[in-house]
Design brief:
Bound molecules: zinc ion
Shape: globular
Strand content: 25-35%
Distance between the termini: 37 Å
Number of strands: 19
Number of helices: 14
Structural class: alpha+beta
Length: 410
């Protein structure tokens, strides 16, 4: 269990390192009612650091589940104008958005895949403008997670509810570097290390990366022209830096969506729309998935791939070593925020405009011409096994080892 003092430091990290709130800004906290105590701590820290106003966006996943059980697909697909307008307000008023993501990974188990897929696609389409704005850093945002009973029991099914919650708090505390005397300073140091790694990759300017491992992964991922490697710290449209994912260990960029060839196997389960997809592989040809299989969650994976043209290609390749605190914990969190930071990953769907040089000043069309991918989806899946090797290949075909046995060698 984290002490209240440590929880306050955690809340402060979300405000100061996460969205890097500036005095006088409005803060939006998007939270499930199960995380109300922590949401209040964040609100308190935001005000203590000079927020103009903190507004809550409460949700309740149990009620969401009831909506899926009782409301029609048509009703759920209809996103009311006031929600679209509300999101517009967040962008226009340069609000900071802090999301507490702590969903029960199995909350939608048993809901028809067709219904989940349709509703998810309809909502993504209706909220496209907002999705694009967050992908382009038009507003500064950050995601953090705290334990809920249902999530903790999924991660530690054999423990009592209270023990599971305590253990998950401890694990999250370590990944958030709260065991340090000065977590804010520890984070600043960590962010500096990650930025240096991104800079080194940018200097090497690889054309492609070749990933191979004993599970059958053997794939060459071309990188988009004018791609740029980014680390945790990004820049908002207003020039203020922020850290979207906390924790974060990755260095990432945009693949070339027409130059991906070979097969990749997942290294950890993917939890998507409340459904677990596992034991799967994807085979790419010229950037598109042409074959796939899944031992678990096949229909869900199929729905995801069939969302739109871009959901069959990749929008992100992210590298991180097996010695990161999350990987070391050996815990499968059933939560992408953590699991994506346990392992190298790829994302099906859209690339981040910011992973191109001057990306936000380019049009979607221009980024596409450079090899950028567009989709209403962006779904990370983990490919970094403990024996993953990666070679960087430059424009002349020269190879440089980047990863050996799951760890950086660069
Ligand atoms: Zn990533
Ligand atoms: Zn991603």
């Amino acid at each position: 269990m984290l002490t209240l003092q440590k929880q306050k430091q955690f809340a402060e990290l979300a405000v100061v390192i996460g969205v890097n709130m500036q005095k006088g800004q409005e803060v939006i906290i998007d939270s499930d009612v199960a995380c109300q105590d922590f949401a209040r701590l964040i609100a308190e820290q935001a005000y203590a650091h000079g927020a103009k106003l903190v507004t809550m966006l409460w949700s309740d996943e149990k009620i969401s589940r009831l909506s899926y059980d009782y409301a029609s697909t048509e009703t759920l697909c209809d996103v009311p104008q006031y929600i679209i307008q509300r999101n517009k307000y967040f962008i226009e008023h340069n609000c900071c958005l802090i999301k507490i993501a702590a969903g029960n990974p199995n909350i939608f188990k048993g809901v028809a895949q067709d219904k989940l897929g349709k509703v998810s696609a309809a909502r993504s389409t209706a909220l496209k403008e907002f999705h694009d704005a967050t992908m382009s850093n038009l507003l500064r945002w950050c995601i953090v997670s705290v334990p809920t009973a249902s999530w903790a029991k999924t991660v530690f099914p054999t423990l009592s509810e209270q023990k599971a919650i305590d253990k998950l708090w401890d694990a999250i505390g370590k990944t958030m570097r709260l065991d340090s005397d000065n977590p804010t300073a520890a984070w600043q140091q960590h962010l500096t290390t990650l930025s240096a790694r991104a800079q080194r990759l940018n200097e090497l300017n690889f054309d492609k990366l070749h990933l191979y491992a004993s599970n059958g992964t053997d794939i060459t991922v071309g990188l988009a022209r004018n791609h740029t490697w980014l680390a945790a710290q990004e820049e908002g449209a207003d020039g203020v830096s922020f850290t979207a994912n906390m924790p974060t260990e990755e260095v990432f960029t945009a693949p070339h969506c027409k130059d991906i060839n070979g097969t990749v196997h997942n290294a950890l389960p993917l939890v998507y729309n409340g459904t677990v997809i596992d034991g799967f592989y994807l085979t790419f040809k010229d950037g598109k998935v042409v074959d796939f299989e899944a031992k678990e969650g096949y229909e869900t994976l199929k729905k995801l791939l069939d969302t739109d043209e871009g959901s069959r290609s990749l929008g992100e390749i992210a590298l991180l070593g097996k010695n990161s605190p999350i990987a070391q914990s050996g815990i499968l969190f059933y939560n992408t925020l953590f699991d994506e930071n346990a392992s190298c990953h790829l994302a099906l769907g859209a690339s981040y405009p910011t992973t191109f040089k001057d990306g936000n000043s380019l049009t979607q069309q221009q980024r596409n011409e450079l090899g950028g991918n567009y989709s209403i989806k962006h779904v990370d899946f983990m490919v970094g096994t403990k024996d993953l090797n990666i070679d960087g290949i430059d424009a002349n075909g020269n190879k440089t080892p980047v990863f050996r046995q799951g760890e950086w060698v660069l």
